[in-house]
Write a structure and sequence with these properties.
This protein is mostly beta strands. It is built from 1 helix and 15 strands, in the order βββββββββαββββββ. Strands 8-7-6-5-4-3-2-1-15-14-13-12-11-10-9 form a 15-stranded mixed beta sheet, with helices on one face.
């Protein structure tokens, strides 16, 4: 019997449409907390792979995570953790950087579909119409540079199968189709769920 507030883990896989890539994530929700463990494999241009393990608090804020990338000539990793007072601790193994990153509560990883879903789920935009401009901790891949970016999420339409969410940042403006759990099904020019 599944305890109240828990769901069975699910595995979701996306195939890249603009580049040769695959992303697979195992999502586990227990007592309102979400854990996402996954891998991204990019075979086009400069090939690399990335693995990640992130957890989100009951409020939906990302609390901590570890991201590793491997390319032909490099291996890198970065650990990020947000303290209760809103300070991000960034650790690459050579000392901890501390920053508020302009109040960022969400994390986005370049080339990952999983991290697009986290603010959609946290804000409930797939269930109730809304719009939010967010300050986001952005991790580029494969170099793992950490910066702060602005992203906007807006509900375009809610359907029986899920919703359409408009995502906008400085480089992209796309209508993402998500299922009833807020997980992307189609992300134009990025990926499609298998």
């Amino acid at each position: 019997m599944t305890p109240p507030g828990s769901r069975k883990p699910i595995v979701v896989t996306w195939q890249g449409t603009a580049r040769t890539s695959l992303e697979q994530v195992r999502l586990f929700v227990r007592d309102g907390r979400l854990r996402a463990s996954g891998r991204i494999v990019v075979a086009s241009e400069a090939p690399y792979s990335a693995s990640f393990d992130f957890s989100a608090a009951r409020s939906g804020d990302v609390g901590r995570g570890l991201l590793r990338t491997t390319a032909a000539d490099t291996e890198r990793q970065v650990s990020v953790r947000r303290t209760e007072d809103g300070i991000w601790l960034i650790d690459r193994g050579d000392g901890v950087e501390r920053s508020e990153f302009d109040g960022a509560t969400d994390v986005d990883v370049a080339g990952s579909v999983t991290f697009t879903a986290l603010p959609i789920r946290r804000l409930g935009l797939h269930r109730k119409p809304g719009e939010a401009e967010l300050s986001v901790l952005y991790i580029s891949t494969p170099d793992l540079t950490v910066t702060r970016v602005r992203q906007t999420y807006r509900t375009v339409e809610i359907t029986d199968q899920g919703a359409v969410i408009n995502y906008k940042d400085a480089h992209r403006d796309a209508n993402i189709v998500v299922d009833t759990d807020g997980l992307p099904v189609t992300y134009p020019d990025v990926a499609e769920r298998l």
